[in-house]
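Dear support,

I submitted the protein below through the web form. The confirmation email said the job was done, but the results page showed an empty box. After a refresh the structure appeared. I'm attaching both so you can tell me whether what I see now is the final result or a partial one.
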Amino acid sequence: MRTGSNHIDILGVKIDDVTLGEAVGRIKGFVQAGSPHLVVTCNPEMVMTAFTDQLLAEILRRADLVVPDGIGVVWASRVLKRPLTQRVPGIELMEAALAEAAREGWRVFLLGSEPGVAERAAQAMQKSFAGLNIVGTHHGFFSREEEPQVLQMIKDAMPQILFLALGVPRQEKWAAAHLGSLRVPVAMGVGGSLNVWAGVDRRAPAWMRQVHLEWLYRIVRQPWRLRRAMAIPRFMAAVLWERFGEGVSEGEAGRPAKRDR
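What the results page shows now:
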């Protein structure tokens, strides 16, 4: 669980105010400590989900590091007069952690995405990061009956970092449920990042990332994301209401209430 005061409250979710380099430094410290730690990459959709999903809200509260993945979270911090230093995109944090893993000799396990994707991502990562030791991969479409075998595979591989591409909030809940028994020093949800590394999906062009339109690129390429993206205007409305309104329950005008977390 996080200690200290170096975090910003965004609608009840505490986001760590860290740069990319500082986040990697925290991960390095977690690996050196050896005990289990959960790293979460937080965006507006996750914040809004936490309003109605109390388990996710508790996981976010107890997570060891929660970075501002979405630009919407950074925007919210500025509106609320509690500005975060910068956005820390999950895929970039994963890549920086992979580079550190290659330098330090850490063991890495990839879990998630469709069958074959994690293996292809692993091959691409090992080409990009000389000396990277990926000690195991498994797809994310395992059944409850198959779960014990997956857990045992991870235990046998003894990774220092476990990257989970199971989707939000499944990956965070799965990590929280099993980190204690797996004893992996760092578990981090990476969403669709394995798909990008495997060549299944493409990241937005650099110019779109620079003007913070990566979310629009994803919707254009994957229209099914539009329904999930509807959380963004709700998030913006909630932020503006917290900044300028008086605070009401979520049932009133769709505006979430302020919560003491």
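Response: this is the final, complete result; the empty box was a page-load delay. The chain has one domain: 7-204.
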